[in-house]
Amino acid sequence: MPPMTVDTHQQNVPEAARPPRAANPLYDPAPGLERPLRPGPVPDPEVFTGRVGDTVRALDPTTEADPVGILVNLLSAGGAVIGPGPFLWIGNDRHPALIWALTVGATSVGRKGAASNTVRRLLKAAVPEFIATQTPSGLSSGEGLIEAVRDPATDPKTGKTTTAGVEDKRLWVVESEYGVTMARARREGSSLGGILRQAWNGEDLGVMNREALHATAPHIALIGHISPRELRAKMQDAELAGGTYNRFLPVFVHRNLLLPDGTGAPEELIEELAVEWRTALADARRTGEVQLTDQAAELWRSQVYPELSGQEDDDGPLAEFTARAAPYAKRTAMVYALIDHTDRIREDHLRAAWALTRYARVSAAHILGAAANSTGDPALDKLMAAVKAAGPGGLTQSQVQVMFKRLSAPQRGELTARLCELPGYAAAQVPNGGRHQTVYLYAPD
Q1: Residue 90: which H helix or E strand, with range?
Q2: Separation between Cα atoms, residue 59 and residue 266, nearest integer Å
Q3: Same-domain status, 349 and 405
Q4: Is residue 372, in this structure, part of any structural domain at all?
Q5: Residue 6 resides in a domain
Q6: Which of 317, 341, 367 represents a domain boundary (last residue)?
Q7: Partner of 276 at 20 to 30 A CA spacing, among 9, 30, 158, 375?
Q8: Is 93's pLDDT higher than 60?
Q9: Which among 152, 149, 168 has a CA at the least distance from the CA of 160?
């Protein structure tokens, strides 16, 4: 395989030069664009990095779909088209370029289908054969999913092939009614949940009661659409603990523009983007192992992994739903990198993936109704709970340092600064043996 070219479109940006994580231009009012009130979280601007981010920005004025909805559809579909060639190691686990996302928004204003259809239109121009043959829907059973990527079946007596196998085992599955899929997976005797877990891992697929039904080296990406109310109604702790749903990035989506006379993206824009994506995806398919640059590896070790690997006392539906945040950050960073024509995950790719996994956790908190008690950031949630539990005397800076000893002093400073921005929380200087110490207090109105 020839070496991949490195796209210099997005070079590493020193932390001090980065803009503050505040307003996201894709969600701010702009001349000529009417944006409705957003009733939920907004993603960090860093998620819109590289070619994926440029594509979202180019398509945004042409659709009412949420930009972050378009983003996760691009990452998921792009990973599906790229196929099983590229991979990265996380421990002893081989991770493929597979991104599964659950886009969650109200039926009338979520524009979940608009996001998927926008990406489908782009990829129909870029890779028409894939869209024509590798994009099924209607997950009804584990056996049905295996059938779509099956190996050849042979007669055990004669050794002759009785059923032809599927040569191209890449799929991008878009389930517009994922609540129906959830209900099917809950039925007694259903193999769907177990098969989905195998598929996310990139493992060979099979069921114990159908020895002849087998699929070797499948590559299946999945996007599910569901409303918040339906998700909360159908989700049970037992399902969460089973591990199926923490294989999805939960992404809150909402209509981002009002386009009563919208006619979609101009054909010339679609063709221009399609040329770029066709080349990027074709090059990525020839890639093997993907690794982090030295700068990205240091960022992973010092900041990303400590934040996303969770705490020993994390518990409850929110923790279960986002339990795979750390491996997902690396998977997603790999797809960002591949679409940027490189087999090295740079710092900007990792920061984008980190921001997306943070948004997924905030989305889960909002969707599951935990927003009042959770920010979606496990470290900040832990600090909030500790300050509340400390009572009127507050939590001292020394106690914060002990609680978060894995974080650096600047990271702890950022964490406590974010705490003091929340309603009811404040920092105070109190006497302590002739000196003053910082104490963090909670005093709700």
Answers
A1: strand 87-90
A2: 10
A3: no
A4: no
A5: no
A6: 367
A7: 30
A8: yes
A9: 152
Residue 54, CA atoms < 13 Å, CB-side half-sphere = 14
CATH number, domain with residue 335: 3.40.50.300
Domain extent for 347:
15-367
Full 3-state SS string of 219-279: EEEEEEEECHHHHHHHCCHHHHHCCCHHHCEEEECCCCCCCCCCCCCCHHHHHHHHHHHHH
Specify the pTM: 0.80
The answer to whether residues 255 and 111 belong to one domain is yes
Terminal CA-CA length for the chain? 64
Would 187 be classed as within a structural domain?
yes
Residues ≥6 apart with Cβ < 8 Å to 189: none
CATH of the domain at 412: 1.10.10
- Phi/psi for 42 (5° steps) reads -120, 135
Residues 339 and 436 in one domain: no
Whether residue 443 contacts residue 431, with contact meaning beta carbons closer than 8 Å, is answered with no
Region 29-57 average pLDDT: 92
The DSSP call for residue 21 is S
202, 80 Cβ separation under 8 angstroms? no
Half-sphere exposure for 175 (CA within 13 Å, toward CB): 23
Classify 88 as helix, strand or coil: strand
Given 337, 367, 397, the domain boundary residue is: 367
124-178: pLDDT as tens digits: 999 999 999 999 988 888 889 999 999 888 776 777 876 888 999 999 999 998 8
- pLDDT for 10 equals 34
Same domain as 309, residue 438: no
Three-class SS state of 175: strand
pLDDT 10s digits, 214-238: 899 999 999 999 999 888 877 654 5
pLDDT range class, residue 11, cuts 50, 70, 90: very low
Residues 41 and 89 occupy one common structural domain: yes
Give the tokens for residue 427. 């920092």
With contact defined as beta carbons under 8 Å apart, do 104 and 231 qualify? yes
Query: In degrees to the nearest 10, what's the CA dihedral of 291, 292, 298, 300?
Result: -90
Beta bridge partners of 220: 171
Q: How would residue 243 be classed by pLDDT, with cut points 50, 70 and 90?
A: low
